[in-house]
Amino acid sequence: MLVNDWKEFLIPYEQAVEELKIKFKSMRKQYRSKKEYSPIEFVTGRVKEVSSILEKAKKLDIPLNKIAEEMEDIAGIRIMCQFVEDIYKVVQLIRQRDGKDLKIVYEKDYVKNKKDSGYRSYHVIIKYPVQTADGEVEILAEIQIRTLAMNFWATVEHSLNYKYKQSIPTEIKERLKRAAELAFLLDEEMSEIKEEIIEAQKMFEEKSGIISDILDNIITLYSLGKISESTDYQDRFNRLLESGDIIEFKNLLDELKKKVQQYRLEQFQLEE
């Protein structure tokens, strides 16, 4: 294929990656908007470089005219989770979409059945329909779901494979295996205190939201011409930042909201 042919060939894959990223990120937002814990921590995606496609095709003996049918990971989505059990929740979310906006071809559970190298992740191969200028095109895509620890390990292994051209020295391989087990032990330990971690994160997010609302209301007071009061509230807010608890922040926010509402009403009556 010529350079322009490759560019045209990859367009549906690029579109699929962008669409899938948006869909999975939207799932995360929906959980957050309902104040629920999201099993999706963050989402990334990529389309294989042409050089990587050609290298893999040569390695697996895939003819160039069969790449679209036989190479499953030209389009790749990676979903990161905080805990191992979240991986299976995400898999269930994908299964619920099977037959709707995607088709599951097969799944591989490398979490429970790790590779010899120590690699762990859950892979779902899908067929995904893309609307193009020439009509609908169905492409293959790979979704990898893993924890943050698994992702860190896999990134390191990928870099080492690149450096040593898939021939990592035996000593480093053994150390990588040990590191993989330690990473999985970390995941298991985190799962043991999952509820405490989630509760702490919720408290942090709630406090962050309240602080943002307080600052917005102080700015609103200032814009309403209540400069002295807005300065007083800013000083009280600064003192709370040093030692205040969430109840005190909530009380300050409630007070501010009432003040803003009062002054807005007064301003509206004057304009009438």
Automatic annotation (TrEMBL):
Keyword Nuclease: no
InterPro entries: GTP_Pyrophosphokinase (IPR052366), NT_sf (IPR043519), RelA_SpoT (IPR007685)
Keyword Nucleotide-binding: yes
GO terms of molecular function: ATP binding; GTP diphosphokinase activity; kinase activity
CDD domains: NT_Rel-Spo_like (cd05399)
Entry keywords, A to Z: ATP-binding, Kinase, Nucleotide-binding, Transferase
EC number: 2.7.6.5
SMART domains in the record: RelA_SpoT
Domain RelA/SpoT, chain residue ranges per copy: 45-168
Functional pathway: Purine metabolism; ppGpp biosynthesis; ppGpp from GTP: step 1/2
Pfam families for this protein: RelA_SpoT
Gene Ontology process terms (BP): guanosine tetraphosphate biosynthetic process
Sections of the chain in a coiled coil: none
Subunit structure and binding partners: Homotetramer.
Family: Belongs to the RelA/SpoT family.
Protein name: GTP pyrophosphokinase
Native source species: Thermobrachium celere DSM 8682
Lineage: Bacteria, Bacillati, Bacillota, Clostridia, Eubacteriales
